[in-house]
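[Discussion] Sanity-checking designs against the backbone

I'm trying to build intuition for which residues belong where. Below is a structure token string of 182 positions. I'd appreciate it if someone posts a full sequence so I can compare it with mine line by line.
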């Protein structure tokens, strides 16, 4: 909304477009064209606008990087400790708390529909999935690792993030198997 008002468009005109069905209100202050198909990337951009300190993680990051068969039902975000828990209905989100290097390392910024979106890199995301295997499922973590090996894997970088996430001993056997059987 602030961008629209900055362009000289009145709030009343914006509200009128919503009432006429030309615009859809995604969240407070965030709108999209009504005929735009809702998709994961739109949800990631909306979440990033609403929570600029957050970083897209786990299943949402796997889906963004196309290394999972999972279809995220909500946007998973990493937030620094301590910070208040965001509450929103749209897009639906799940927050995970990270601290230190586990929060700050492996962050990439991608532009989605003109919005800068922070997403963990593939290697960090896979390490996070092993760290949160009780929440995302060990099968999801192993599947993501296998799909990662079908691409151009960087084992050194992958194990760097495994050390940061303190899952090196958990991941090592799977990485060794995958490295010999891509």
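Best answer:
Here's mine. Compare freely.
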């Amino acid at each position: 909304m602030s961008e629209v008002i900055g362009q000289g468009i009145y709030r009343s005109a914006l509200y009128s477009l919503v009432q006429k069905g030309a615009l859809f209100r995604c969240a407070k202050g965030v709108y999209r064209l009504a005929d735009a198909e809702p998709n994961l990337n739109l949800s990631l951009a909306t979440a990033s606008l609403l929570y600029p300190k957050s970083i897209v993680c786990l299943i949402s990051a796997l889906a963004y990087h196309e290394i999972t068969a999972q279809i995220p039902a909500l946007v998973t975000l990493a937030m620094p400790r301590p910070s208040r828990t965001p509450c929103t209905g749209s897009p639906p989100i799940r927050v995970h708390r990270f601290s230190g290097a586990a929060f700050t390392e492996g962050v990439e910024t991608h532009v989605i529909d003109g919005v800068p979106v922070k997403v963990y890199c593939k290697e960090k995301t896979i390490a996070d999935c092993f760290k949160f295997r009780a929440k995302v499922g060990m099968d999801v973590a192993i599947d993501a690792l296998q799909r990662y090996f079908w691409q151009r894997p960087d084992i050194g970088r992958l194990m760097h993030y495994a050390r940061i996430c303190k899952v090196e001993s958990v991941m090592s056997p799977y990485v060794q198997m995958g490295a010999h059987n891509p």
